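Work Package 4 report. The design task specified in the project plan requires that, given a folded chain encoded as structure tokens, an amino acid be chosen for each position. We show below one input record used in the internal validation round.
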């Protein structure tokens, strides 16, 4: 069984955001695979760096859509993004410092956050984005 399995139900039917969500999903899957095949962790760290960079791009996209849709929970949603980046940046440092079991801790954090955010917080964006005509 895969570490994380993509489901079409994760989509909110706004193409750009769905594509970015899938990109984040794919990077988490690469992180999982990298730790199985490369014991020194260099590829894991590089992939985690890419994930954090891509998450920032995605968050900027989502925030742009939220502002255009005049989403009432914009500040709260943006704060979730900021907290995630802070936590992920700390994990990057811990991976670089080779903290014990950090790869597993990182994967668990990313999986839980991804599923909670995509299936929870981002699900709330679907209706206002569709009302605004975003596709």
């Amino acid at each position: 069984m895969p570490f994380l399995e993509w489901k079409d139900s994760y989509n909110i039917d706004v193409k750009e955001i769905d594509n970015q969500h899938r990109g984040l999903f794919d990077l988490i899957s690469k992180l999982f695979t990298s730790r199985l095949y490369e014991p020194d962790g260099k590829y894991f760290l590089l992939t985690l760096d890419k994930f954090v960079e891509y998450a920032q791009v995605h968050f900027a996209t989502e925030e742009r859509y939220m502002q255009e849709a005049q989403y009432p929970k914009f500040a709260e949603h943006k704060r979730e993004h900021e907290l995630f980046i802070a936590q992920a940046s700390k994990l990057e440092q811990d991976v670089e410092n080779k903290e014990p079991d950090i790869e597993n801790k990182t994967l668990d954090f990313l999986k839980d956050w991804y599923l909670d955010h995509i299936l929870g917080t981002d699900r709330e964006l679907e209706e206002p984005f569709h009302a605004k005509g975003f596709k």
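Helices lie at 15-37, 42-68, 74-96, 102-121, 126-131. Validation will be extended to a larger panel in the next phase.
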